[in-house]
Amino acid sequence: MKKIVLLLFAVCWVENAQPAESFDGFFRQGLSAYQAKKFDEAAGLFAKAAEIEPNNPAAWSNLGLSFASQQKFAPALAYFRQALWLKANDPTATAGAAAAFEKMEVKEIPHRSDFSVLLRKNLLEKISTQQLWLISFLSFLLLGWIATGRNRKTRMNSFIFSAFLFLTCFSALLLQLWDRQTPHATIVEKKITAVSAPETTGVPIFDLFEGLDVEVKQVQKDWLQVTYPGALTGWIPRNTAIITSKE
User: Fold this and answer.
1) For residue range 115-157, what is the model confidence (pLDDT) as tens digits?
2) For the chain, give me the number of helices (H) and strands (E)?
């Protein structure tokens, strides 16, 4: 009996010995604050957890949930997108991003629907890099296995299909790797005018609205040069957007 009591005490001591300023410490405190409906406090704690482990999608998803629970949907959308950048198709982030985006008054601005924009929206954002690596590798193995087959007619038909599958997946993988080199950001101001230069006296070019996803071309002190995909490029104050991928 004494051994059981000591064992339970040891388990509790190990759990409570977790440093308060570690990722797990901040994350657990964030969960407790969220469950107590202290959403602003939870957001601060999840933000600290994300600072310690910026590549952990759970921290960003929970940060998004904390902002959404405060009816702050634009920053919530930004943090959900950050989670999805780290882990495509994450269930919480996917559902959260969709719900937050529906709250945006302006869903898009006039732009060209060119091939790169459509490809990114319909394919590259919906499948992870790891999944593309795996499919490309398996299709390559299948290609090699078919090439060694004995039945020439069957082998040729299967070879063409496998080669097409491999080239398609590998091309998508290369495009996604290239796309991930371009940082993205989410506008969090209700409305912001992009100007021609990184200064308040710049000539107005076009308007951006909260929730819109933009590409970040340059960072210059307190300014971001951004492009709305398929549209124009201009400068906006850095505090009007949240970077949702690596700079």
Assistant:
1) 566 666 666 666 767 777 788 888 777 777 776 765 555 566 6
2) 9, 7
| Residue 220 structure tokens | 């210059």
Which own/partner pairs from 199-206 qualify as long-range (CB within 8 Å, at least 24 positions apart)? 199/223, 199/235, 202/234, 202/235, 205/232, 205/233, 205/234, 206/109, 206/231, 206/232, 206/234
Burial 72-93 (b: 16+ CB within 10 A, else e): bbbbbbbbbbbbbbbbbebebb
How many C-beta atoms surround the C-beta of residue 224 within 10 A?
A: 25
196-228 confidence digits (pLDDT tens): 999 999 999 999 999 999 999 999 999 999 999
User: 241 by DSSP, 3-state: which?
Assistant: strand
Q: For residues 93 and 57, is the Cβ–Cβ distance under 8 A?
A: yes
d(CA 84, CA 107): 19
What b/e readout covers 144-181, taking b as 16+ CB neighbours within 10 angstroms?
A: eebeeeeeeeeeeebeeebbebbeebbebbebbeebee
Cα 185 to Cα 187: distance, rounded to the nearest angstrom:
7
Rounded distance between C-alpha atoms, residue 3 and residue 12, angstroms: 14
